[in-house]
Automatic annotation (TrEMBL):
Residues 5-57 form the Helix-turn-helix type domain. GO terms for molecular function: metal ion binding. Gene3D superfamilies: 3H domain, Winged helix-like DNA-binding domain superfamily/Winged helix DNA-binding domain. It comes from the Bacteria. InterPro entries: 3H_dom_sf, 3H_domain, HTH_11, NadR, WH-like_DNA-bd_sf, WH_DNA-bd_sf. This is Transcriptional regulator. The keyword Metal-binding applies.
Length: 178
């Protein structure tokens, strides 16, 4: 049974349309950022689908869309073109995944839904001097994506190919609504 603070935290995440930064949650609840990290860990352990994204914490609520995993390969310089091609066609980029020989699957939460999200993400990559996960695998990586209609996914994949981005897998996974 969640504590009162955990219930308040969950309620805030349930009401949010976008991810909420940990510091904003801490200020709203009158606690430190570290307390939020701890509470989120406890809620996750209890089965709550809470994700940490570069923009903050996000509660994965069921959407009316469909979900699949795209396998793609491109250079770091093509990242902007890749993400723009997806969001321009209404495809939401939930995460990025790579298969690492030593660590297995490594997942980074993204939740990118617009060009603005792409720009913010890439600005953060640059300002933090961060390395993209795909650099660990020579450009090969996966994206878990959501979309509302099959034509959105098909058009996005075609746009990726036209941009010179290799799309290795683009078959819908038939997961139905998620």
């Amino acid at each position: 049974m969640p504590t009162e603070r955990q219930q308040r935290l969950l309620h805030m995440l349930q009401q949010a349309e976008t991810p909420i930064p940990g510091q904003a949650l801490a200020e709203a609840l009158g606690v430190t950022r570290q307390v939020i990290v701890h509470e989120i860990a406890l809620l996750r352990a209890a089965g709550e689908p809470i994700y940490a994204t570069p923009k903050g914490y996000w509660l994965n609520r069921a959407s009316s869309g469909r979900e699949t995993v795209l396998a793609v390969s491109h250079t770091p310089e093509q990242t902007k073109d890749e993400l723009y091609a997806l969001v321009d066609h209404g495809v939401r980029v939930l995460d990025v995944r790579v298969e690492h020989a030593l660590y297995g699957e490594i997942v980074g939460q993204l939740l990118i839904t617009s060009r603005r999200d792409v720009d913010v993400f890439l600005e953060k990559v640059e300002s933090e001097r961060a390395t993209l996960l795909s650099s660990l695998t020579g450009g090969f990586h996966y994206h878990r994506v959501q979309y509302d209609r099959e034509d959105q996914l098909a058009e996005a994949c075609e746009a990726l190919r036209k941009a010179g981005i290799q799309v290795i897998t683009d078959e819908p996974s038939n997961q139905g609504p998620v």
